[in-house]
Amino acid sequence: MHDARILAFVLAGGEGRRLRPLTENCAKPAVELGHGFRIIDFVLANLVNSRVSPIYLLAQYKPAPLIEHVARVWRPALVRRGCLLTPVIPQDPYKGTADAVHRNLALLAEHEPDVVAVFAADHVYRMDVRQMVDFHRDRAPDVTVAAMPVAIAEARRFGVIQADAVGRIERFEEKPGEPAPIPGDPDHAYASMGNYLFDPIALFDLLEETAGRGGADFGRDVLPHAVRSGARVCAYDFSTNRVPGLKAYEDATYWRDVGTVQALAQARRDVEGNSPRFDLRNADWPLQPAGAE
Fold first, then answer.
1. Do the bridges between strand 55-58 and strand 85-88 make them parallel or antiparallel, or are there none, so unpaired?
2. Taking phi first (over 0 means left), then psi (-120 to 50 degrees means alpha), and beta for anything else, what does residue 138 get?
3. Which residues span the domain enclosing 244?
């Protein structure tokens, strides 16, 4: 099913208050991870290596360093490949993640995609997006949410999913006080990674309905209501995803939300050493385009 036309929105406007002082002068995705890489490079690498185009980068908070990095490192190489990567800065501030996509829905009519990807820009991981798209198109839900187990104590920072045996989500709760554990595993909960695939018509309807209710956020407003209203919402198990070039010593399902100073510091430790949990050196799934500065 690799011929699916995919339109991608990257949510890159976060202020990153929990990362201060690192975000005093730039948005969270523009913060440096180390070795010349910024947080934004990981989601862009996953989309570009998965042959996803067009990509719209929805920026907002102090966007200049982010836009400059993308223009210098990414756009020249992608133009040569025929891949469209376009930053979008709003005239008036977005009210939330869902509002950001809602205000750019005209792009659906322009590109006529089979699938719309809405991905967060503040996570460190590798993912073959086409594998998630194949899962999504095989099951034909309205929404597919990438998810993985996290420790209960950590789950309070994420959207927590309860799904049935075939992966249909029965409940979605954003940042719950008491996360529901995975059946048979009381120490872990099933957390949303902030990466979503939508049927284009379902996305349009969900965002129109959400805006009508005054909602503006995917995790807080769109997904919980979609589940409650009976929309088909499925969980994609990130642990099944594989990219080429992984080393034997790596964590094949490495994913880290670097939304806090502590989480970023841990991610920086995870990429260091001769046998890191996450090896930045992967010629088969590069984190920046060939020839990048």
1. parallel
2. alpha
3. 6-270
